[in-house]
Design goal:
- This protein is α/β, with parallel strands linked by helices.
- Helices cover 37% and strands 13% of the residues.
- The chain has seven helices and five strands, in the order αββαβαββαααα.
- The chain has helices at 3-9, 55-67, 85-89, 114-125, 138-147, 163-176, 185-198, and strands at 25-28, 45-50, 73-78, 97-101, 107-111.
- Strands 1-3-2-4-5 form a five-stranded mixed beta sheet, with helices on one face.
- Strand 2 (45-50), helix 2 and strand 3 form a beta-alpha-beta unit.
- Helix 1 (3-9) packs parallel to helix 2, helix 1 (3-9) packs parallel to helix 4 (114-125) and helix 5 runs parallel beside helix 6 (163-176).
- The longest helix has 14 residues, at 163-176.
- The chain is elongated, with a radius of gyration of 23 Å.
Length: 203
């Protein structure tokens, strides 16, 4: 699949004619560098390894440059022989090739196929702005044990990194919503909804 088509289908690109967030930056011309240190803050970042002398590879890069838009950071690594230190550092066997990192600097994957790059960028873009425990993290399991139910998203999951805090908040919440108080549950929920609206809290 053509690079532009694949990335457009990924739903991550700006409309034709829109100005890109900024020109791709060359972070290495062969010397070793630590790629995550050059990623775009708060965005998925694609590092493209290519030989600038190749018109086909320049065309591949230009397609990414024009279509990446504000949601994807783009960085270049220029090679001549493919034997440069950075090529060995990141085990690049052929060009063009791309390495994708998510908004938190975690490595997502590598590929030379446009549709695979699009899928990796889509995955990287799905990472939440607020960090929380991912599936397999014992803290998430502890959180679900405290709440007595699975938790996939929402305001409660933002506290999954500190189950000890969550336990106390959950106990306070349960106490506040006990049925044997002066206000019934419906009234309490109405008050909570009104306060949230005043605070412009979408939860």
């Amino acid at each position: 699949m053509h690079a532009l088509t694949a990335l457009t289908l990924a739903g991550l690109l700006v409309a034709p004619g829109a100005a890109p967030a900024g020109s791709a930056t060359v972070v290495s011309t062969g010397q070793k560098v630590t790629l995550p240190q050059h990623r775009v803050p708060e965005q998925p970042t694609v590092f493209v390894f290519l030989r600038p002398s190749s018109s086909l590879e320049r065309s591949f890069l230009e397609g990414l440059r024009k279509e990446a838009g504000p949601k994807v950071g783009l960085r270049e690594v220029h090679l001549k022989s493919g034997e440069e230190p950075i090529a060995r550092q990141y085990e690049i066997g052929s060009t063009p090739a791309a390495l994708v990192y998510d908004r938190r600097g975690r490595f997502v994957g590598r590929s030379a196929e446009a549709d695979e790059i699009a899928a990796m960028v889509r995955k990287a873009a799905g990472v939440m702005r607020i960090d929380w425990a991912e599936p397999g993290d014992p803290r998430l399991a502890e959180m679900e044990k405290i709440l007595g139910r699975p938790v996939n998203s929402g305001i409660m999951r933002t506290m999954s990194l500190r189950p000890d805090w969550l336990r106390q908040i959950h106990e306070l919440h349960s106490l506040a919503h006990r049925p044997d108080t002066a206000l019934d549950r419906r009234t309490k929920e109405m008050i909570a909804t009104y306060v949230s609206a005043l605070n412009k809290c979408k939860f």
